[in-house]
Design goal:
14 helices, single chain, alpha/beta, five-stranded antiparallel sheet, Oligo-1,6-glucosidase, domain 2
Length: 512
């Protein structure tokens, strides 16, 4: 009975009489361009240009053509400011670039080179907090007049989770720990000083990836996602856009409800960002692959669509905070199925450097998050082509036996070739446009099917998110042709298999 009901549903939803629904477009306060496919780079590990073993801005500039070959639209640089730790999220000085990476001229040269290739450049801005060695906090702990107002101090801590004893007396608040004291965004001075920092860097880059926006202000017992956090961010965005109307912003808003994630977007009702990193969709997608059931995933995307933000979400499968996908998902076919979904769903796919090679976590890593931050392997030569000197971090030996850009670039079956095909398909079908999309009920709970349309045509995507064979039915989407040219019907999909139909032929189908 259950399968019969689904069979009826798929016949009805595939009918050309059912119109596509255009979700409300995200309304930008300014024209910041199309963020499209976003590529996250850890500068320290991407490319060393001077042989000192550490990646730098000139090194990134020398590899921009690689990003273009992937179909990337936006380059996201992890923090480039002086910081206590190598990751850069514990900033000690917002006024300059860490000397290991270069200087302002190097950044300007990188941005110019990126713009010449049609790429947007974002810099990661960790502005919820500073390192305890930042001069602002040092002054506050010394008890200098007025310095304490930049931070959250209390005579009596509200709880014992995130409050730490102050050398100046009382307690200070640090959401991310004792070494990362929170700035107080209820204070006008802090807002003005941070607005000035934003203004300085927006003279040089296209925008920011904004770190940890949900914890800007903890108010009235709400630790994450408070109304005050929204208000503080809106204030900074409005001031930034007044001076830099073309600036664009991506927010790390680690919300776990679809509507909450959408609430950070820039709409007619609020001043927000152009894209939100989609933790909700990530969780639903990994759950779907684990359980072989796409029900929750479809519900999440429907909720985002109903809230008017489906095209503003940015889908990621790995990052500087998460183990790389091959470490999480050992099955290579499963990883490719997840990539198909990530790249073809509405919104922006976010690619962490090295994902295009299907790199796993580094086995030689010790310390928090280092396993995901090994140098990029470009070829099979010394240090994978990352440096002519001694790399700051030892590459796994796999780089000299196929796990590098040069070798995979010559292999049409490689992860790199697969990624380039997905990027090509997005370009040919203009999938970076805010578009109409519609989920399609399938014959099996593991079968994810959806339509997308843009100015370049229409796609119909069917993906089996399970390790078993799935029958997609004997029918196919009306008016669309299988891009492989193999069959008119969806038919049986092998474990982790997929089929893509389109209104126009393409030269860049992502073969398994």
């Amino acid at each position: 009975m259950f399968l019969h009901a689904l069979a009826c549903a798929v016949t009805e939803t595939l009918s050309p009489l059912t119109p596509l629904v255009d979700p409300p477009a995200v309304q930008h306060a300014a024209d910041c361009g199309d963020l499209g496919v976003v590529y996250e780079i850890y500068v320290r590990s991407f490319q060393d240009s001077d042989g000192d073993g550490t990646g730098d801005l000139d090194g990134v500039a020398s590899r921009l053509d690689h990003l273009v070959s992937l179909g990337v639209d936006t380059l996201w640089l992890m923090p480039i400011f002086p910081a206590f730790g190598p990751a850069g999220y514990d900033v000690t000085d917002f006024s300059m670039i860490t000397a290991e990476y270069g200087d302002l001229d190097d950044l300007d040269d990188l941005v110019d080179a990126a713009h010449a290739r049609g790429l947007t450049v974002l810099v990661d801005l960790p502005f919820n907090h500073v390192d305890r060695g930042h001069p602002w906090f040092v002054a506050a702990e010394r008890g200098e007049a007025g310095a304490h107002r930049r931070f959250v101090y209390a005579d009596v801590p509200a709880d014992d989770a995130r409050w730490f004893a102050s050398a100046a007396g009382g307690w200070f608040y640090g959401y991310f720990g004792r070494d990362l004291p929170d700035l107080d965004y209820t204070d006008a001075t802090v807002l003005a000083e941070m607005a000035a920092i934003w203004d300085r860097w927006l003279d040089h880059v296209d925008g920011f990836r904004l770190d940890a926006v949900i914890t800007l202000v903890e108010a009235l017992g709400v630790i994450e996602g408070s109304a005050a956090s929204h208000e503080a961010l809106a204030t900074l965005l409005e001031e930034a856009r007044a001076e830099h109307p073309d600036a664009c912003f991506v927010a790390e808003a680690s919300e776990w409800e679809a509507e909450a994630g959408v609430s950070w977007l820039d709409t007619e009702l609020q001043s927000g960002v152009e894209r939100v990193l989609d933790f909700v969709r990530l969780d639903a997608l990994t759950t779907a692959a684990r359980d072989g059931d796409v029900t929750e995933l479809l519900a999440v995307i429907e909720a985002q669509s109903d809230a008017g933000g489906v095209s503003g979400m940015a889908t990621f499968l790995g990052s500087h905070d998460l183990s790389r996908l091959p470490t999480q998902v050992p099955d290579a076919d499963a990883r490719r199925a997840l990539r198909v979904v990530q790249w073809l769903l509405p919104g922006s796919p976010v690619l962490y450097y090295g994902e295009e090679l299907d790199l796993a976590d580094a086995t030689s890593a010790t310390g928090q998050d280092l396993a995901m931050r090994a140098p990029m392997p470009w070829d099979s030569g010394h240090a994978g082509g990352f440096t002519t000197g001694t790399a700051w971090f030892t590459l796994d030996q796999g780089y000299n036996s196929g796990a590098n850009v040069a070798d995979q670039g010559a292999d049409p079956t490689s992860a790199l070739a697969f990624t380039r095909a997905l990027g090509c398909l997005r370009k040919e079908y203009a999938l970076s446009e805010p578009d109409a999309w519609r989920p399609v009920l399938g014959l099996d709970p593991a079968l994810l099917m959806f339509r997308r349309s843009s100015s370049a045509g229409e796609l119909f995507v069917a993906v089996n998110l399970s390790a078993r064979r799935v029958d997609g039915g004997s029918g196919g989407p009306d008016g669309l042709a299988d891009l492989r040219g193999n069959a008119d019907a969806i038919g049986v999909l092998e474990p982790w298999g997929w089929r893509i139909f389109g209104s126009a032929a393409t030269s860049c189908y992502p073969d398994p």
